[in-house]
Amino acid sequence: MAKELKDLTPREENYSQWYNDLVVKAGLAENSAVRGCMVIKPYGYAIWEKMQGALDRMFKETGHENAYFPVFIPKSFFSKEAHHVEGFAKECAVVTHYRLKNDPEGKGVVVDPDAKLEEELIVRPTSETIIWNTYKNWIQSYRDLPILCNQWANVVRWEMRTRLFLRTAEFLWQEGHTAHATKEEALEEAKKMIGVYAEFAEKWMSLPVIVGHKSDSERFAGADDTLTIEAMMQDGKALQSGTSHFLGQNFAKAFDVQFTNQEGKLDYVWATSWGVSTRLMGALIMAHSDNNGLVLPPKLAPIQVVMIPIYKGEEELARVVERLEIIASELKKRGVSVKIDSRDNVRTGFKFAEYELKGVPIRLAMGQRDFANGTIEIMRRDTLEKETISQEGIEDRIEKLLDEIQQGIYEKALKFRDSMITRVDTYEEFKDVLDHKGGFILAHWDGTPETEEKIKNETKATIRCIPVDAPEEEGRCIISGKPSHRRVIFARSY
Amino acid sequence: MAKELKDLTPREENYSQWYNDLVVKAGLAENSAVRGCMVIKPYGYAIWEKMQGALDRMFKETGHENAYFPVFIPKSFFSKEAHHVEGFAKECAVVTHYRLKNDPEGKGVVVDPDAKLEEELIVRPTSETIIWNTYKNWIQSYRDLPILCNQWANVVRWEMRTRLFLRTAEFLWQEGHTAHATKEEALEEAKKMIGVYAEFAEKWMSLPVIVGHKSDSERFAGADDTLTIEAMMQDGKALQSGTSHFLGQNFAKAFDVQFTNQEGKLDYVWATSWGVSTRLMGALIMAHSDNNGLVLPPKLAPIQVVMIPIYKGEEELARVVERLEIIASELKKRGVSVKIDSRDNVRTGFKFAEYELKGVPIRLAMGQRDFANGTIEIMRRDTLEKETISQEGIEDRIEKLLDEIQQGIYEKALKFRDSMITRVDTYEEFKDVLDHKGGFILAHWDGTPETEEKIKNETKATIRCIPVDAPEEEGRCIISGKPSHRRVIFARSY
């Protein structure tokens, strides 16, 4: 591993290769035999489980329940919402048959032509259609509302160019789908959930995000408004990390979901949907990690503290491990996850490198001198700072340090992110910043899709969002010179 | 609901209809627009989440980690293991295309014939093949073993006749896939995991099970041995509730997974796989419920205690609810899940019926006399016994009662199950018991697939298992009269 670790491509040399090396070498994920689909390995999945756990608690605290809807969607469902079909019913996995049979020529199995489905089924790329088709039967009156459902599921979008976690044909996600009696309540819900995502990103992932609205052309297919959280990666590119959509009455109309309101009149139901996915794993990795490997915020680290005994011979090992176990036991009582690595077939330097690669927030090492002196070496992964401290009160020290690391990673990311926000007033400046610095660019835009498209075609930068807290400011569009009332955020993105 | 509840078909009238009514009316699941696929509704999913939580902890306590493998499997993978292909690559969902396009005739979307996959993909019916293809790259030496992975996932088997939870085209499950250096270790693992399932069934589901080996013809396709837990439903039919397979070196050979053992020699890796699914929901419902609705063991109940205020007017409501909230708050501190139902638009009788239907283990009702007297009415769902008790010490009483109910449901099911085990020595008796009593039949069998097949064809009864604790007993096969050394268990089954 120490050797393999050296094979980690340096971040500054090739960011993209560094990312891929890291994902594979840290044991997070790998490509599978199926084009575009990944295998999420145990260490990567353990981080995802921590994300799921925290998000699931936040969803439940805000009144949501989990449910499960079919993985297949009849093809015709997509055609019912005009915008949705354009966005989602194109690059997708299509099930056309339901049986295989032995190859008459004896070569394995072949599709049985007699088992053709009357209507093709699409492996869900997102579930609005099947869910609103179901809600139709759940909703008659305002008393049946709101419905606040979430599902944890796999989805498939047939992406041509895939990258582990960031863009894969199959990915894991959660999708919330809510139904409301009023427009105001649905708008409130969409806002509440983007707030939940922002809080999760900041408190759990140590990832500062900008909350804003998508422009018309970047909006979810079938939504009246899309809220997004946008994060900044270390290479200056933006990463959309979660979205929450106000769907208006579009899906209710497409699936004829009406209810009797308090005034006794029939009306269409208002909808939201919102989701985050295993893409968050990509954001987490790219935002914090370095040339030694992963840097994990303690709240998402499967192992928060690793303890490594340094010894010669079994006797020394036994007494150091005994001491470490006492500390470990106290830490576990406090809810800290601890691993003691007393493998005998691996050198200490290898272990050090391995846990740096895996991003374990705190490393403790105890040798014979430490044992005798009642001291221990402690290293924090985020800064790589090392010191020798007393074993006395170590548990308090560690609990405090875990909080400091969580906060420290956030502050570092925030400082970086803020340094990567540039205000520009001309298109020349815009292109210059984009090419030489990257990051978020705050610029005036005339609000037209034509201008947006021109910028995108010429620079590959897109409008990431119109921040919810953007102050009013009179200015002129960097392209057309037409008046603009607030700056929007542009960036190249993942 | 009180009215709807009366619509629940009585168990003795039509068991199958009673089951279906119950699943739908209690809000557990319903059929979807996609043939054979169900929607798991929030209340049903909440029970499944409790099952998942308990099982996941047990898997982790026994050293397993979660991971995630692709939903698609290349068709050719199935042909690599000769028995497996026969069992699994037949009735399945086949993805043949990866794109839709606008219908040239303007009628929605159609499959794009240019987007045909070179090799068809199968939506996983089980994941041995894709996982062993992956393990090939993870395993070089005995130091890489064991691998103890589990995944929570959806799977698809194209069943022709489906029933909610019991047999659906798509279902949710977990599948453990482990890799070992020795046969002994793999055998030990398969045994350990069927033990985990048996413990889960008994301690969490209050469901007694018989652990045994499947006969050759009932074995998992690709396994050398299949262990099963078999439960008895109230209609006298058996339900296979979980299986654990010793796969020998079959998949290692099919996917060429070799390792260097401690002696430095190449050998094939030994394997197990084991799974339980949303079918357990069916077992839970059918084992314990009655004509009033669900009966849930407290450990799996989303709501363990429901509190219902009985009142006239807002003032009475307010003071009763205030008192109930004090009790609820104390119960929540102790980890008991509580709901206070103070809906004003629903009658008390309706509420009572609703929570009986939903199987909430304990119901508390407090009226004005109770309020004045410091008493409360308590009802346990399993026996429907009601009494009025003092509010003093109610929390201790409830905690104790929840344990009693958990145990009581188990004992009732055990007593019933034991009453449904019949020993027979002739085929006449066998058929008589099967037709007039049902249940598990202990009979001698000559060990041949021919006899097994004859019995199955003539009576629809199958060998559920050869119990692991079956005592040696000399006897003669009820069909062939040939000698047999132990009785096996026959039953009609789901």
Strand content of chain A: 25-35%
CATH superfamily membership of the largest domain in chain A: Bira Bifunctional Protein, Domain 2
User: Widest sheet of chain A: strand order?
Assistant: 3-8-9-15-12-11-10-23-26-22-21
CATH class of the largest domain in chain A: Alpha Beta
Biggest interface found: A-B, 62 and 62 residues
Report how far apart the termini of chain A are: 30 Å
Structural class of chain A: alpha+beta
Low-confidence stretches of chain A: none
Integer average pLDDT of chain A: 96
CATH architecture of the largest domain in chain A, by name, is 2-Layer Sandwich
Question: How many E strands of chain A?
Answer: 26
Main sheet summary of chain A = 11 strands, mixed
Oligomeric assembly: homodimer
Q: What would you call the shape of chain A? A: globular
Q: If helices are DSSP runs of H or I spanning 4 or more residues, what is the number of helices of chain A?
A: 15
- Helical content class of chain A: 25-40%
CATH domain topology of the largest domain in chain A: BirA Bifunctional Protein, domain 2
Number of domains of chain A: 3
- In angstroms, what is the radius of gyration of chain A? 26 Å
